[in-house]
Amino acid sequence: MADFGAQDVAALRKLTGAGMMDCKKALTETDGDMEAAKDWLRTKGLAGAAKRAGRAADQGAVEVVVVGTAAAVVELNCETDFVAKGADFKAAVLALANQVAANGDENLGAQPFESSTVAEAITQMGSTLGERIELGRTARYESADGVLDAYKHVQNERGTIGVLVELGGVAPGDEKAQAVAHDIALHIASAAPRYVSKDDVPVDALEKERVLLTELTLNEGKPENAVEKIVAGRLNGFYKDYCLLEQGFVKDSKTTIAKLVEGLGAGATVRRFVRIKVGED
Q: Buried-most residue among 20, 128, 257, 269 (CB within 10 A)?
């Protein structure tokens, strides 16, 4: 008998958006395995689990900075949005982002910070604010021969999404490239790609998607001799959902990000990006 309870059903529903009874059935069919249940719902066409998987209810804030040839994004988590949008909390996230930009994020907790260490300062903040405060995800880019940009999406009075992006094949200080980099950072915040290009999709992730789409197509009653072609078309949709260069630009859906970058010259490319959203893995 499958080992799961009402809390598991509710959690699966939150992750996938599927109905309560469908979530219960999915957990029953998969012996309570949450990951397998998300896949089961997808094969039945009952959920958008691929996009929503991994979300959590954590609160907090993110901050981004660009300082010279370095850029950083930092997430600081807390228990309530009331604390997250407070002036002291937001000031702390900004200070930590500047810390990472200047010194990197390796062994961040032990780095000197405000007359103590980063870890001690966060512990003290938690004591002062009366909540559990934890350092979330961090990232730092440095580029001496390209263009860096950052974007912060603000919601409910604090940063909730932070993005860093690096363009290569363009001259540092190129104003057009800088503007495009900022547009791409804004796009990433909205569209939430996972990879830069098709080539970056891991083989196992692509194969898993192919298997799921094949099962979904068969469950829809499509002729077997048409399944391969239908799945190929749906994989193109997968690339458009999750590969940055394949996506239509949020400001002009008829223009792909690849075309936007090509406008900067033949050698221009998106080298890398990172997107951090509060409460999302």
A: 257
- Tell me which DSSP letter residue 85 carries: T
At 168, list the tokens.
């290569």
Residue 8 has a pLDDT of 87
Domains and CATH numbers, the chain: 1-55 (1.10.8.10), 59-196+249-277 (3.30.479.20)
pTM of the entire predicted model: 0.78
The pLDDT value given to residue 52: 44
Whether residue 185 is predicted with pLDDT greater than 70 in this model: the reply is: yes
Q: Which two tokens stand for residue 176?
A: 């057009």
Please determine, for residue 106, whether its predicted confidence score (pLDDT) is greater than 90.
Answer: yes
Task: Report the interhelical angle of 118-129 vs 87-103 (nearest 10°).
Answer: 170
User: Over the Cα atoms of the chain, what is R_g?
Assistant: 21
**Type and span of the H or E element at 100:** helix 87-103
In order of 55, 193, 246, the CA distances from 49 in angstroms are: 10, 15, 21
pLDDT at 54 over 70: no
Q: Residues of 111-120 as b/e, b for ≥16 C-beta within 10 angstroms?
A: bebeeebbee
**What is the number of residues in the chain?**
281
Per-residue model confidence as pLDDT tens digits over 248-270: 999 999 999 999 999 999 999 99
Cα separation of 57 and 47, whole Å? 19
The answer to whether 183 touches 177, Cβ cutoff 8 Å, is no
Which is nearest to 245 in space by CA: 217, 215, 271?
A: 271
pLDDT at 14: 76
Give CA separation, 192 vs 8, 135, 205, 249, 269, in Å: 26, 22, 17, 12, 18
Q: Residue 204: what are its φ and ψ, rounded to 5°? A: -65, -35
